[in-house]
Design brief:
Layout lengths: L2 H23 L10 H16 L19 H12 L6 H25 L3 H13 L1 H7 L5 H20 L2 E2 L6 E2 L4 H25 L1 H21 L10 H25 L3 H16 L13 H8 L4 H13 L2 H4 L1 H19 L12 H17 L4 H36 L3 H10 L6 E4 L4 H7 L3 E4 L2 H8 L6 E4 L4 H8 L3 E6 L13 E5 L2
Parallel strand pairs: 3-4, 3-5
Antiparallel strand pairs: 1-2, 5-7, 6-7
Helix pairs in contact: 1-4, 2-3, 2-4, 2-19, 3-4, 4-5, 4-6, 4-7, 4-16, 5-16, 7-8, 7-9, 8-9, 8-10, 9-15, 13-16, 15-16, 18-19
């Protein structure tokens, strides 16, 4: 490569790296927390730092938060400890953004090692600029760290299965492994299991279900797609070590949580937030049809669904499916996870994120094979320009997101000024009563001590005690509150007075005046 070409490639790589970092980290902490998920995560992590109790996730009002295991909250708290013990919006989002960046690097590194120079770039860019992957990667949610853990587990599993093949030949040739390579294979399987264990600590059994179903399906597909000497294998010893590694990572906390909550953990987390979500038995959760994820994925993976479907169909019809194991791995990953997630009655677009890396792998492999099969240089040039246009289109969306969409959403959910006004009337350590307010974001800004109430009898009992009280509730309950509790309540602040746009759910702060 000539010096000018080398400098051009270096500059291009630098631009790609800068754009990648900007996608996940630019303006990451510029807006306030904007959702219940973000505020819950920030509360759980901040309370861990304030109290030193890192076991059960607990909100500022003292209620145990048993919707998710503590994996993500531990990550946020660890970053918060480096931030002087304070969980800011940037701190709350950093583990998700960092996980997104790591996932992109893992896709790139995996395909480079498999010999896909162009495919690695295509897959990494597609994953990094898939619109929903970036959007959730810039949010304090568990889904992107879960995606990263699931991805690390499956890629390590693939490496373990393929470690007995002689590289540099096509197709790869299976040979008798020396002891060192056998140990390396066992090591990769253990790494896979450790990552799977952490996926369980992030979101529970769904992580293991996604990893296990994909790994088993891949081995079954390879039994018919690969000749006998080349079939991936999972040795019995590795399987046993893997089960022990997963159990060693995840079981201690789950067993302790079950004991610490006197059995409530199984009922709330496993039954309500896993079984009931999957079967659709919970009346509080909406059910969706089996086809719901089809259009959702097509939109969430834009603009790359425009290439993924035609290239995948071409690859299967032209024989790439039979020739390229990495492509098969990506397809199996995407299809199996799509099927598993579609079987659940309760669905969210965010839940699709763990299959995005598989789709990116399949896209990268198919794109490289298509390019190398073109005899006409003009077709290659057109394809590269088309790829550049899609990349430019994907990147062009984000300045609008950074400076228009995200600030608008932050303004719509703004609670900080209202919380400050409330604390003027009830300075710490006075307890603020939240009656049917259901706003984790407001609770985050108020800080503890808080007391959440949902029944009129509870509110009447608390207000019956002497001394001043401050209570936050929806305005439609204010008139009944005086009548039922027998206390005179004076409005002192309204959420609508502290927001630039009409809040989706109005709240009012009342203070006892007798």
């Amino acid at each position: 490569m000539s010096a000018p070409d080398a400098r051009l490639r270096l500059a291009a790589n630098g631009f790609v790296a800068l754009a990648l970092v900007a996608l996940f980290f630019f303006q990451l902490g510029a807006r306030d927390l904007v959702s219940s998920h973000e505020a819950r995560g920030a509360q759980n992590a901040q309370r861990m730092l304030d109290t030193g109790e890192w076991g059960l996730p607990t909100l500022f009002d003292g209620q145990r938060d048993l919707q998710k295991p503590p994996g993500y909250y531990w990550l946020v708290a660890a970053v918060g400890a480096l931030n002087g013990g304070h969980v800011s919006p940037w701190v709350a989002r950093f583990p998700a953004a960092a996980s997104g960046l790591v996932a992109v690097l893992l896709v790139y590194g995996f395909l480079r090692r498999e010999g896909y120079a162009t495919g690695a770039l295509v897959a990494a860019v597609a994953l990094a600029s898939g619109n929903h992957f970036v959007a959730i990667g810039r949010t304090a949610r568990i889904d992107v760290p879960l995606t990263c853990a699931v991805m690390a587990s499956l890629l390590a599993f693939y490496r373990g299965c393929s470690s007995g093949e002689r590289r540099g030949v096509s197709p790869p040739v299976r040979f008798q492994q020396p002891a060192g390579l056998r140990r390396a294979a066992h090591g990769w399987f253990v790494v896979s299991a450790l990552a799977a264990g952490f996926a369980v600590l992030l979101k529970g059994p769904v992580g293991l279900a996604l990893i296990g179903s994909t790994a088993v399906a891949f081995l079954l597909v390879e039994r018919s797609a690969s000749p006998l000497p080349e079939r991936p294998r999972l040795p019995l010893l590795s399987a046993v070590l893997g089960v022990l590694a997963v159990a060693g990572v995840a079981v201690p906390w789950f067993a302790w949580a079950q004991h610490a909550t006197d059995g409530e953990f199984v009922r709330v987390f496993f039954w309500h937030h896993n079984v009931a979500r999957f079967t659709g038995e919970s009346e509080s959760l909406a059910s969706h049809p089996w086809w719901y994820y089809g259009p959702r994925f097509a939109l969430a993976f834009l603009p790359w669904t425009l290439l993924l479907v035609p290239l995948a169909v071409w690859a299967v019809r032209s024989g790439v499916w039979k020739q390229q194991r990495a492509f098969r791995f990506g397809v199996v990953w995407t299809v199996v996870m799509f099927a598993v997630l579609s079987a659940a009655r309760f669905k969210r677009a965010d839940y699709l994120l763990p299959l995005f890396p598989g789709a990116a792998l399949a896209l990268g492999c198919a794109a490289e094979r298509w390019l190398t099969s073109r005899a006409n240089p003009r077709s290659v040039r057109i394809a590269k320009w088309a790829f550049g246009v899609l990349v430019a289109g994907a990147l062009a969306v984000w300045p609008v997101m950074w400076f228009v969409v995200e600030p608008a959403e932050a303004a719509r959910q703004e609670k900080r000024p209202f919380a400050a006004a409330i604390r003027e009337h009830a300075p710490k350590p006075q307890t603020i009563l939240l009656f049917r307010a259901e706003s984790h974001l407001l609770a985050y800004h108020l800080g503890s001590p808080l007391h959440t109430l949902v029944e009129w009898g509870e509110l009447k009992e608390v207000l019956a005690t002497s001394g001043p009280h401050v209570v936050v509730m929806p305005p439609e309950y204010a008139a009944d509150a005086e009548r039922i509790t027998g206390r005179k309540l004076v409005p002192v602040a309204s959420l609508a007075d502290f927001t630039s746009v009409r809040p989706p759910r109005p709240l009012v702060c009342l203070r006892t005046a007798d």
